[in-house]
Amino acid sequence: MTPTVVLPVIIGGLYAAGVYLLLDRSLTRVLLGFLLLGNATNLLLLSAGGPSGLAPILGYAEADEIGDPLPQALILTAIVITFGIAAFLLALIYRSWRLVRQEVVEIDEEDRRIARRSATDADDIDPDDLAPEDRPAMHEDTFAADADVERGLAENYAGIPSDDVDLPPTRGRNR
């Protein structure tokens, strides 16, 4: 049997498409990318298992004619793991959709603010020397702001339990 280049090209294409989809902000595309990576891994394990052979459990074949059952067991394990993580990602997508009516991960302004800081060592920073917007949470002057936030939440969402997924969509985003 001569080796073919088709299967490695398909595996490489599935890995490339999977990684490309994983890097997107849409959670649905992340799920599809993860499924492509799982399928590419299954094909890689199948191709690494060597040529097919006779079933080892029957016992009527010679040792060199028996197929290796280890790649098949690894593929079954990979299928189960891929299914479990896909179910978890589907739950995340559903929860995101129920909370904010979108499944795209937005840019976090807090991350941008931290990235703009200088490369100062965290041990050298005194929180009292920082601007109020750069101070860490729970600093002594942030308690007033926390009380304002709590008061605003109590006014806007009176009577709605905090763990209710039927909250209205976030304000400020009109699509």
UniProtKB/TrEMBL annotation:
InterPro entries: CPA3_antiporter_subunitC, NUOK/Mnh_C1-like. Residues 132-143 have a biased composition (Basic and acidic residues). Gene3D superfamilies: 1.10.287.3510. It is a multi-pass membrane protein. Residues 118-143, 155-175 are annotated as: Disordered. Keywords: Cell membrane, Membrane, Transmembrane, Transmembrane helix. Pfam families: Oxidored_q2. Its main location: membrane. The chain crosses the membrane at residues 6-23, 30-50, 70-94. Residues 121-131 have a biased composition (Acidic residues). It is found in: Cell membrane. Belongs to the CPA3 antiporters (TC 2.A.63) subunit C family. This is Na(+)/H(+) antiporter subunit C. It comes from Blastococcus goldschmidtiae.
